[in-house]
Amino acid sequence: MKAFFTLFIAVFSLTTFHAQTKPWQGKFEPIDDIIAPPNTYRTASGAPGKDYWQQRADYKIKAELNEKTNTLIGEETITYYNNSPDNLSYLWIQLEQNVNKKESEDFGDASGGIRDSISSQQMQYLTRAIDFPAGYTIKFIKNSSGKDLRALVNNTMMKVMLDSPLKSGESLKFTLGWSYPITDRSLFMLSREGYEYFPKDDNTVYLMGHWFPRMAVYNDTEGWQNQQFQRLGEFALEFGDYEVEITVPEDHIVASTGELQNSDLVLSKTQQERLIAARKSFDKPVMIITQEEARQNEKTKAIKKKTWIFHAKNVRDFSFASSRKFLWDAQALQLSDHVTMAMSFYPKEGLPVWKEESTKAVIAALEVYSEATFEYPYPVAISVNTSNIGMEFPMISFNGGRPDKNGKMSENAKAGMIGTIIHEVGHNWFPMIVSSDERKWMWMDEGLNTFLHQRTMAEKYPQYHSTKPKDIVPFMQGDKNILRPIMTTSDSELLSQFGANFYQKPTVGLQMLRNSIIGEELFDQAFKEYANRWKYKHPNPGDLFRTLEDATATDLDWFFRGWFFTTDNVDMELANVKWFKIYDKDVNMEDKSKKVAFRIKGESTNKEATDFSGGPEMITMTKTPDENYGGFLSRLDEPEVRKQVANKNIYALTIKNVGGLVMPITIEWQYTDGSSEIERLPADVWRRNEYETTQTFLKTKEVKAIKLDPNFEFADTNMSNNTFPKQESDSQFDSFKKKQKN
Question: Region entry Disordered: which residue ranges (predicted)?
């Protein structure tokens, strides 16, 4: 050890260290201290452990839609399986409809509160000027013997007290009867479901989401996930099988999660024949209900009712839409072992763009996501048109975007509509199958889904904009006093920035990992590994982080720590560039004893250069003393070393980490002969000094200009300090004059 220490001192005494003078922040330390430790349920590799378990809930539901009163009445039987190692003395059930009660918390003030000028809709959000009855009426809760069970309701959660504990490994059945007034979606901010009324033809489209009481998640990391529903943080749900009967007016068409079981009773013979034809149509949609047929449906309102029966296997939720206004088209998509039906339901108000684009966008999403993760497993994927917003459920989604009264739609609006459809269909993977906890970590479903949504847009719709790292810069430049890290629980984020923080920033982070840090092939394999490890299971953030490291053999803790747990931004400054050449006695006649002799022309070496006009500094390369080799008997071939650096250009770049977020360094070298090249340094160069690094490069060609992050891969928030020769930035007055001219 002593010999090694002597050698270490000898070698490194020749090197000038740039010691970190600011506080060490541990940017490369493991994140084990800020994520849950591994155990037998969740392994250190990021995979489910040998003792992993999760609960299950099967549902049998009968529901009836009353169009006259806009109410939904239902009865459901839940079979709940306790696969946990714990005995449970009570159960928690989600009652999301209670969020619409007047006394419940609301997001009305989230858009800025009262102002001197305000729309009637904003006033409704703020004050609930038009009162609206809302929330569940629980009619009964009975066990399998018909005995009443005691229940306590706390806002959007209901606690069901069991007569005796539900033991580990056992199951129970119980039945609930309930009803609630369906909400008018226009009256509530962030309303994801409810009805939309069309006054011109006096008809309604019903979008039924979180419409029945559902079992809350009980898991190994927090027990019951019984966090209140506050609109922003969405759902944490268990998987199960569903048998659902939906009774609606006879002239209604129902789009739903699951497979239709009684098409012979609810569809006309013509509609059945068209649906059969659609199952063999792989190149274009087949109209199941045409525009003219939908117009005829609108004219009369049936008094009689009919019941649609759907079955769905291994899903975590169930949703449906119902209306007499629907046009309906369908197209088949062949996957490796089954055919999936892509379908769209829309009122005439969606024409012509929905007929042209909706099912096409559904198929685009199914193709790209299936390739990137695992094949879409379900029999149908449905897109239903709504007035605004997008909302996802297993096999079905409600998607905004409509043309104007003349059927016209701008390209930007069409891109937004297509993007919404792709995004909401994509949620079938995240979180409907890879079932993360949306109520706690919105970014785990929205961010991962947006990443593949934007990839789908780039691959299938290259004519439209898709998210790039540059898009997150305005957010990253924001006020650090209000910015939150990505690792912020869903309901703690500001409404004004949750889109950037939970959708865009994780997307850009994954793009950086794929395109610039890990590499496409290895990243894609790792991302697919995560999706397949956790499909039909409940992953946490640590499971994602560990899997990406495990499947790539890449230390990414520095990236996760900075990008997900802080509000630091990327701002690298090319602070100084020095140009050197080796002193050659045959060329230079100056004093040979000087290690740094002089600039060919220009000023003192102590002053930072602003360009290359001063020429290179000359350095003398001396013979290595024997003591520097320690016990080594071999010696460098010094003439060969001299030969390799003779007439070469040596550039020392000092780069500062101004923004605080460490990242790899990408350098573009522009040479005087007109050529250029890109060079990449890993983020590890910041390990010994988190604030500043000096890197040395040997170049055959003479450099004309240098630029950091030339392709904008890392969302650098200030590109003006990335170049050498240094560029003068415009004053505010000069910028103003340029704007005036333009």
Answer: 717-742
